[in-house]
Each structure stands twice: as C-alpha cells, then as structure tokens.
Amino acid sequence: MKFRLRRTIATTLVLLLVLTQGFIFTPTSYAADTPNLALGKTITASSHTQVYYATNANDGNINTYWEGAPGSYPNYLTVDLGSVQNVYKVVLKLNPSWESRNQTLSVLGSTNGSNYTTLKSSQTYTFNNPSNTVTITFNETAVRYVRLSFTANTRATGGQAAEFEVYGTAQGGGGYPDLVVTDIQWTPSNP
C-alpha cells in the first residue's frame, strides 16, 4: 500500500512538472504590449512641409499626418517617451485611403536625445493600401527617444507618417515570469 502511494505521488509530480514545464521555465517571447507609448508625447521633426507638422504623427488621428520637407533627406521624426522604456516594436501608419508606396527608413534609439544607436537598420518597407501599416520589430532595448530616419519615399519627396506608434513590455518586462519554482517537497502526514 505504501509503495503504491509513493508511486502515485511520484507519477503525479513528474506529470505535473512535464505539463507545466513550458509555463514555468520557458520565458514568453514578450510580455503583453504596453499601450502606445508615443501617443500624445513630445514629438519633433527635422523638417515639415506646409501644415503637416510632427505633432500630427502621434495624435491618434489617422487622417492627419507629418511630412518631411521636399528633397531634404534624411528626414527625422523623433518621439520623447518621457522616461526610459523597454521598447521592441514600432508601428508606422499612413492614411488608409492613400495609394500604396514604399518608404526607406531606419529606427534609432537614445537614452539622452543626443547619442543614438541603430535599433533597426535601414530597409525599404511597403505600405499596401488599404491598411498602409508597417510593423517593425527589433531586439528589446531601453530607450527614452525613438527616431525614424527616412531616406526615400516612392509617392512623395519627403518621409510621411500619419501615426508613429511605439510599443514595449510592461515595466519589469522582458517576458519572464515573476515567480519561479525551484524546489518541490512533499512530506506525508503519516510516514
């Protein structure tokens, strides 16, 4: 009887460990996204044309947009997140009624607004109508400032962004659980 109880308990513990191993010991790729960290934050640009100011690019309105001055590449669009945040994704949106286009850009980050490092090297991204949305992911990095550097646009003479969104992990993120089980013991009440 005692042997059967021990075997049942041992089997149950092994089964429990096997079934929960992925949950307990394997980090998720990313914790849940934070809200759009750039929404309504201070945003600046190296230039703009007409009434297409930088502040249009993070106002939450897809119908307003920023456009860099004609022929003045590179065009920079920089958002100050207000404090250092762990970021790993930029979502760039154009007005969904616009024709499809390609824009070449890179993503840069900084903790002080002066010294920038490359988060994502320059690439050409296709904005397909009707969504006209591009998602750019990169290794999670702690930054306060996120900058887009535009160097080409097939439908305009400057960079364009209707919405410049920045996402990261919740504070303390990294995708790892905050509870890790390192040992399990069981003592029978009647040995």
SSE topology:
Blueprint: H1 2-25, E1 43-45, E2 66-67, E3 75-93, E4 101-110, E5 117-127, E6 133-153, E7 160-161, E8 163-168
Antiparallel strand pairs: 1-3, 2-7, 3-6, 3-8, 4-5, 4-6
Main β-sheet description:
6 strands, antiparallel
Q: Counting H and I runs of at least 4 residues, what is the number of helices? A: 1
CA-based shape: elongated
Count the E strands.
8
Structural class: mainly beta
Distance between the termini: 12 Å
CATH first level of the domain at 43-168: Mainly Beta
Mean pLDDT: 85
- For this structure, what is the CATH homologous superfamily of the domain at 43-168? Galactose-binding domain-like
Please provide the ordered H/E string of secondary-structure elements.
Answer: HEEEEEEEE
| Poorly predicted residue ranges | 13-20, 22-30, 173-179
Give descriptors for this structure.
single chain, 191 residues, mainly beta, Jelly Rolls, 6-stranded antiparallel β-sheet, two-stranded antiparallel ribbon, 8 strands, elongated
Q: Nutshell version of this structure?
A:
This protein has 191 residues and is mainly β.
Structure notes:
By secondary structure, this protein is mainly beta. The chain has a domain at 43-168: Galactose-binding domain-like (Jelly Rolls, Sandwich), CATH 2.60.120.260. 13% of the residues lie in helices and 39% in strands. The chain has 1 helix and 8 strands. Strands 1, 3, 4, 5, 6 and 8 form a 6-stranded antiparallel beta sheet that branches. The protein has a two-stranded antiparallel ribbon with strand order 2-7. Strand 4 and strand 5 form a beta hairpin. The chain is elongated, with a radius of gyration of 24 Å. 27% of the residues are buried.
